[in-house]
TrEMBL record:
GO terms for biological process: CTP biosynthetic process; GTP biosynthetic process; UTP biosynthetic process. Signal peptide: none annotated. The lineage of its organism: Eukaryota, Amoebozoa, Evosea, Eumycetozoa, Dictyostelia. The chain holds residues 71 to 220 of 221 of the full protein. This is nucleoside-diphosphate kinase. It is an enzyme of class 2 (transferase).
Length: 150
């Protein structure tokens, strides 16, 4: 595939607050292409694996309880610079510092309920996509690339 991919997850608070459509809309209207999507209730073990890099942090247990507390919408988005630009669309980790106009800046208040995850590098994106998606669950299709890219 021509462009990079990132892993985006709408966390249980985002799903339960009914923000799935709002969040998908922001990535879609930007021009990124949705190539994988599913809803699932993560196990505690899956949450711990997903956030393994943070296992020494004091908030790790709370974070894994939160992430496994309900349904999550897991997605793969594709596009030029989607890892970095996806993080820009999401906004700063702590919603108190997220710029208005970003997903977190507009839609949430607390760091422990910040509604969305996005991969922070192309390497972590690859690992997270492999963790959450089988190859057969990611779809290739043309989309509107000829109108989005020069
Ligand atoms: P991000 O989700 O922006 O990539 P991260 O990878 O540093 O942020 O941390 C993962 C999640 O852990 C984050 O979305 C919310 C939680 N978290 C991070 N820092 C925290 C803190 N200081 N206190 C409580 N929760 C925190
Ligand atoms: Mg992170």
């Amino acid at each position: 595939t021509k462009f990079e991919r990132t892993f985006i997850a709408i966390k249980p608070d985002g799903v339960n607050r009914g923000l799935v459509g709002e969040i998908i809309c922001r990535f879609e209207r930007k021009g990124f292409k949705l190539v994988g999507i599913k809803i699932l209730h993560p196990t505690k073990a899956q949450a711990e694996e997903h956030y393994a890099d943070l296992s020494t942090k004091p908030f790790f247990a709370g974070l894994c309880n939160y992430f496994s507390s309900g349904a999550v919408v897991a997605m793969v988005w594709e596009g030029k610079g989607v890892v970095k630009t996806g993080r820009t669309l999401i906004g700063a980790t702590n919603p108190a510092e997220s710029t208005p106009g970003t997903i977190r800046g507009d839609l949430c208040i607390e760091v422990g309920r910040n509604i969305i995850h996005g991969s922070d590098s192309t390497d972590s994106a690859k690992a997270e996509i492999t963790l959450w998606f089988k190859d057969s669950e990611v779809a290739e299709y043309q989309g509107n690339q000829t109108w989005v890219y020069e």
